[in-house]
C-alpha cells in the first residue's frame, strides 16, 4: 500500500496560457485563454485539460512541465503568488516548442511587474467558506523589477470536507543586466495543514452511495501537514548572433505528517476503513538544469533556426512503509469510522533516485509566411536506483533516442494545416509491494503521438482549432507468475476542437470538446483479466465558458463542464456516472474611497451534481458540492 497514500494528497492544480500579466491583475482565465485546451489563472480555470492530465494521460509520468518554456522537473507545482498563469499546450500551439512531449506540455508563466508600482489587497470567501486575505505587489526601480504576493487562509475548507489553514507567498525578481541580457530569480513557499485525507475503494462491483457533502471521514487525530518550496533562476541573452537560455530549478515537497484514510464500501453503504500513517520526510526533491543555444539566419526566402541544448534532472523520493490503523465497520450514509486510539508510525524507509540527462539538436525552417518545419533529435540517459523499504537495492540504466517533427502550412491568410509526430521517454516507477518482484525498478517506456489538424480564423480575434490524434505507450500490470511489469499497450485515439476569442465587442468565448477511445491491448486483455478500455478516464469532455460585458466596468460569465462516465475498475465491470456542472459569476470594477477596486463573485455546481470521480488507481473521490466565492480587491498606486 506504500504507493496509495500520495495519490490523493493535495489534489491537483490546473492551467492557463495567458500572456504575462502584472502581479496585481485579478484572476480571469477566460479572458486570457488562447484556446480551449486548458488554462488556469489563480483559482479560476477553463478548458478541457488540466495540469495533471492531458488527453487521458497522467503528466506526472511524462514529466512534461516547463517554466516559461524552460525544462522543469517538479516535486509539486509553482505557487500562484508567482504565476501569471498556467497553460496546456497541445496541437498547433505545441508545434514550436523546443522540447515537446507526446501527451502535451504544461507551461508555467511567471509574473512580470506591471507598468505602475502597485499594491493590491484582497479579502473575502473562497470555495466552501474558505476565508482568505491576499496581497499582491508590483514594483519597478531602474534595471530591477519585482512581482509577487502573500496569501493567508486562516480557515481553509476543501471539497472533501477537510478543514485546516494555509499560508503561501513568493516573489519574482527581474534584472536587466545589460541590453539583450535579462536574469530572473524566483522563490515561493506553500505551507498548509488540514485534518487528513480520505478516498473510497468500491467493492462488490458497484459505486457506493454518495458521501455526505463536506463531511470529514478521517479520525479526529488524522492530520496532513505539508510544505512545497520552489526556487529558480532563468537567464536569457543575445551574444554574437546567438540566443542563450539557461535555467536552474529546485522543487521540494516535504511532509511533516501524512494520514490517509481508505474507505472500502459496497453499493448498500456497508463500509470498513483503515488509516495509513507514514512518517515525516522530504517526500520528493527535484533539481533541474538546462542550457539552450540558438542561431537564426536567412538564405533568400528561407529562414533557418538551429538549436542545441543540454538538460538534466535529479529527483529523490523518500520511500516509507505505511502503518495500517484499522477503524472498523460503519454505515457510509449515516455513520463514521470508530474513534480508535492514535498510534505512532513504525516501519522502514527507502529511497528512489532518478538521474536523467538529455542532449538535443534541432532545426527549424520557415518559408515566408507559408510553411514552418521543425525537427529535433533527443538522446537521453535515464538512471534509476531504488533502495527498497525491504532493504534490497535495484538499479536500471536506459539509453534512448527520441524525435519530434512538426509542419505548419498556411493554406490561406486565415487557415493553416498542421501535423506532428513526437516520441518521448516516460517513467514506469517500480513494482508494487504485492508483486513477486517487489520494488524492482521497471524500465522507462517510450510514448508516441501522431496528430493532424487545422486552425482557422473565423473572424478577427476568434479562432477555431480541430485535430485528430493518437497517443500510445506500453502499460503495466501483473503477469501470470505474480510479477509486475510491462504487459500490453494503451492507445488513445480521438478528436478535439477549440473555439476561443471575441464573438463580438462585448462577448468572449472559450469552448471545446475532446472525444477519444482509450484502448488497452495485450495478453491480460486477451485472457479476460483486464478490460479493453482504460479505467479512471472520461473519454468525452466538453467545456464552455463565456464572458459578457454588461456595462462599463461590469461583466457576467458562465461555465459549463461535462466529464463523461469513467470505468471504475480495470476489468470494465462498472462505471462512475458522468458529471455535468454549471457555474455563474459576475465581475465589477469601480472606485472605492478614491482607489480602483474589483469585486469577483462566482457560484459553482449550481445544478447540485453529486457522486464520484473515478481515478485510474481504482480510488473514488467525491464531486465538489455547490459553493459560492466572493473576493473584493482594492489597489494602492505609488501616488497614493
- What integer is the average pLDDT? 90
The portion of residues forming beta strands comes to over 45%
The residue ranges in which pLDDT falls below 50 over 5 or more consecutive positions are 1-25
Helical proportion, percent range: under 10%
| CATH class assignment | Mainly Beta
Q: What overall geometry do the principal axes of the alpha carbons give?
A: globular
Number of domains: 1
Number of strands: 37
Structural class: mainly beta
Q: Tell me which CATH architecture applies here.
A: Beta Barrel
How would you concisely characterize the structure shown here?
With 640 residues, this protein is mainly β. The chain has helices at 29-32, 59-62, 523-526, and strands at residues 39-41, 44-46, 53-54, 57-58, 65-67, 70-72, 83-89, 105-110, 118-125, 131-141, 144-157, 163-178, 181-194, 197-202, 224-239, 242-265, 270-278, 281-299, 302-320, 323-331, 349-367, 371-387, 393-410, 415-426, 445-459, 462-478, 484-504, 507-521, 540-551, 554-563, 566-567, 575-576, 579-592, 595-604, 612-614, 620-622, 627-637.
Walkthrough of the structure:
With 640 residues, the protein is mainly beta. The protein has a single domain (5-637), classed as TonB-dependent receptor, beta-barrel domain (Maltoporin, Chain A). It contains three helices and 37 strands. It has helices spanning 29-32, 59-62, 523-526, and strands at 39-41, 44-46, 53-54, 57-58, 65-67, 70-72, 83-89, 105-110, 118-125, 131-141, 144-157, 163-178, 181-194, 197-202, 224-239, 242-265, 270-278, 281-299, 302-320, 323-331, 349-367, 371-387, 393-410, 415-426, 445-459, 462-478, 484-504, 507-521, 540-551, 554-563, 566-567, 575-576, 579-592, 595-604, 612-614, 620-622, 627-637. The strands form five sheets. The protein has a 22-stranded antiparallel barrel. The protein has a six-stranded mixed beta sheet with strand order 2-1-7-8-5-6. The longest helix is centred in the first third of the chain and has 4 residues, at 29-32.
